[in-house]
Amino acid sequence: MNLSFKKAEKLRKNSDFLAVYRQGKKEYGKYLVIYFVYHKDSGRKAGFVVSKRVSKKAVVRNKIKRRLREIYRLNRFSLPENIFLITVAKPEIVKADYNEIRDDLLEAFKKISNRTD
Fold first, then answer.
1. I need a labelling partner for 4 at 20 to 30 A (CA). Which of 70, 72, 73, 89 fits?
2. 72 with 5: CB under 8 angstroms?
3. Taking a C-beta distance cutoff of 8 angstroms, is the pair 37, 19 a contact?
4. Residue 42: inside a domain, yes or no?
5. Which domain holds residue 105?
6. DSSP string covering 95-106
7. What CATH number does the domain containing 54 carry?
8. pTM assigned to the model
9. How confident is the model at residue 3 (pLDDT cuts 50, 70, 90)?
10. Structure confidence by residue, pLDDT tens digits, 35-71
């Protein structure tokens, strides 16, 4: 099992982000909102958004993104194979530690995996 997070597994194009926002469903967590859509292509892709509303400091925003990417990288196999998702951080995430963020994200992944719509 390869645990790396390759470029091909990342949502990179603005058009892909817009498509997920427009067509996707939402799942809410305490610190996150996850937009997801099932895609006809095989393979899962993920994108992470931490806006200036969360923190004005780039250092803080980048730290949160690194944590989200790492949690996703280690646990992405719990998601369906053909899913595109965007994880958007809420401002409350600044006060959370790694374990709280991980638990919140994994709970959201579980909800997404159990959804039938």
1. 89
2. yes
3. yes
4. yes
5. 7-114
6. G--HHHHHHHHH
7. 3.30.230.10
8. 0.91
9. confident
10. 999 988 778 899 999 999 999 999 999 999 999 999 9
- Is pLDDT of 97 > 80? yes
For residues 6 and 37, the model is more confident at 37
Total residue count of the chain as it appears in this document: 117
Q: What values do phi and psi take at 32, rounded to 5?
A: -140, 155
Residue 1 included in any domain: no
CA 12 – CA 70 distance, rounded (Å)? 17
DSSP state of 56: S
Q: Is residue 2 part of a domain?
A: no
Strand order in the sheet with 32-38: 25-28, 32-38, 83-89, 45-49
Residue 91 within a domain: yes
The domain tally of the chain equals 1
